[in-house]
């Protein structure tokens, strides 16, 4: 009999994966971590019963959460990642040659198990001399650091368990303090078809601290429910509205290929479907 592993994110709806080998299943210091094989998606990671990443579709999310803010900024040198223990965002961020990256992940086990079972996610990025890995709570880090960042990317779990603090007004305020003048904050903000409240509450908590705050969208197959939103905040309103010609020029200069991200997708991602716009006050 095959074992089916279901996500337990929503009360009334579930996606399930037919599991082949279960490679790792343990309670870490912070959360329940399971890594298993699925014939279609390859390796799958869940934390506290919620899908985090799969080999097959990881590129969609990792490209969009990384390249949109970095290319919109145009001159990012220091990037901070909060969370992101699987290394997928780190890999994409370090494709930008001029960038140094600090990554603050609360759970060392996620990093270690991802290096072992998802080697293509980080693709050697943890060994890059431009990567500075800190094992700590992201909330505490942004409260205390003296460093300043051009881009902050919050690749967090959902607002349950250790990720909850990364959806608070206090955290957003401290992120603002850590950004350079034209800095950009981008955060994982759930799938609004199911988690509409997250759009409304994030807007309420984040917008008071920034001159410009909004959302952009990306459709990740295993974050079921259509588009997910990524929250966007900056004190430079122009960054969100860069003309496509500017983004095209910067992407060409960056000199790498992608599988989801294009300058057209970048600009179009800020046009929100009406049901998402209606969640924004
Ligand atoms: N892309 C995934 C998603 O959207 O659901 C997130 C993947 S990544 C594995 C999420 C990471 O955030 C986990 O490794 C988790 O340990 C980390 N995390 C959760 N709370 C944190 C906190 N307070 N500080 C730093 N990292 C945190």
Give structural notes.
The protein has 281 residues and is of the alpha/beta class. It is globular. The strands form three sheets. It has a seven-stranded mixed sheet with strand order 9-8-7-10-11-13-12, sandwiched between helices. A four-stranded antiparallel sheet has the order 3-4-5-6, covered by helices on one side. It has helices at 58-73, 88-93, 108-117, 119-122, 138-144, 169-178, 192-206, 244-254, 263-268, 274-277, and strands at residues 3-6, 16-19, 22-27, 32-38, 42-47, 50-54, 78-83, 100-105, 131-135, 149-155, 179-188, 212-219, 227-234. The chain is built from ten helices and 13 strands. Strand 5 and strand 6 (50-54) form a beta hairpin. It has two domains: 3-52, Spermidine synthase, tetramerisation domain (Spermidine Synthase, Chain: A, domain 2), CATH 2.30.140; 58-277, Rossmann fold (3-Layer(aba) Sandwich), CATH 3.40.50. Bound molecules: S-adenosylmethionine. S-adenosylmethionine (SAM) binds at residues 47, 52-53, 61, 82-86, 104-107, 110, 137-139, 155-157, 162-163, 165-166, 188. S-adenosylmethionine is lined by residues 47, 52-53, 61, 82-86, 104-107, 110, 137-139, 155-157, 162-163, 165-166, 188.
């Amino acid at each position: 009999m095959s074992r089916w592993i279901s996500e337990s994110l929503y009360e009334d709806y579930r996606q399930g994966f037919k599991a082949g080998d279960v490679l790792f299943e343990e309670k870490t210091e912070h959360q329940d971590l399971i890594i298993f094989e699925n014939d279609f998606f390859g390796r799958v990671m869940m934390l506290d019963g919620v899908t985090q990443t799969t080999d097959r579709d990881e590129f969609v999310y990792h490209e969009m959460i990384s390249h949109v803010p970095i290319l919109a900024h145009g001159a990012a040198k220091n990037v901070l990642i909060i969370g992101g223990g699987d290394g997928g965002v780190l890999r994409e961020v370090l494709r930008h040659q001029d960038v140094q990256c600090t990554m603050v992940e609360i759970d060392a086990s996620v990093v270690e198990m991802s290096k072992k079972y998802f080697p293509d996610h980080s693709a050697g990025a943890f060994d890059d001399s431009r990567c500075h890995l800190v094992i700590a709570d992201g909330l505490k880090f942004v409260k205390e650091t003296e460093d300043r960042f051009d881009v902050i990317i919050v690749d967090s779990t959902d607002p349950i368990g250790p990720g909850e603090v990364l959806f608070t007004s206090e955290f957003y305020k401290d992120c603002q303090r850590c950004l350079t003048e034209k800095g950009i904050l981008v955060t994982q903000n759930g799938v609004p078809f199911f988690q509409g409240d997250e759009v409304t509450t994030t807007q309420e908590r984040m917008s008071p601290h920034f001159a410009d705050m909004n959302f952009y969208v990306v459709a990740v197959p295993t974050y079921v429910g259509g588009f997910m939103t990524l929250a966007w905040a900056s004190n430079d309103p122009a960054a969100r509205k860069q003309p496509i010609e500017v983004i095209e020029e910067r992407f060409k200069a960056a000199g790498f290929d992608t599988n989801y991200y294009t300058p057209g997708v970048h600009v179009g991602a800020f046009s929100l479907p009406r049901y998402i716009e209606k969640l924004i006050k």
